[in-house]
Write a structure and sequence with these properties.
This protein is mainly α. It has one domain. 80% of the residues lie in helices and 0% in strands. It contains three helices and no strands. Helix 1 packs antiparallel against helix 3. The longest helix has 41 residues.
Length: 99
């Protein structure tokens, strides 16, 4: 159950970041409440990737850095979910073997 929650949360985070990329690349109005909310949610999530690259085009810079952040969140979430699911399976197998 915990593995599913982690996997879902990481995919939601990655999805919000991808939406933020699309809004920025398409030139969405940052004064709009929804766009502003998405940007406000994304900023702290992508902060560790802030100085990863220094590209000339601002749209490409956001797309690349935020895209890498989305991929990392999705990959780490999937990896953690698999590790937790595997640990749960091993515990169940041990309990059955002991019974």
């Amino acid at each position: 159950m915990l593995a599913r929650i982690i996997k879902l949360a990481s995919r939601v985070v990655a999805g919000v970041i991808v939406v933020g990329i699309a809004l920025h690349v398409l030139g969405a109005n940052a004064d709009n409440a929804v766009v502003s909310l998405v940007y406000d949610v994304c900023r702290p999530l992508v902060a560790p990737f802030k100085d990863l690259f220094d590209l000339d085009d601002a749209k490409w810079q956001i797309a690349v850095k935020w895209g890498i952040a989305a991929a990392v969140y999705a990959a780490v979430g999937t990896l953690l979910a698999r590790l937790l699911a595997g640990a749960g399976f091993t515990r169940r197998r041990r309990r059955r073997a002991l019974a």
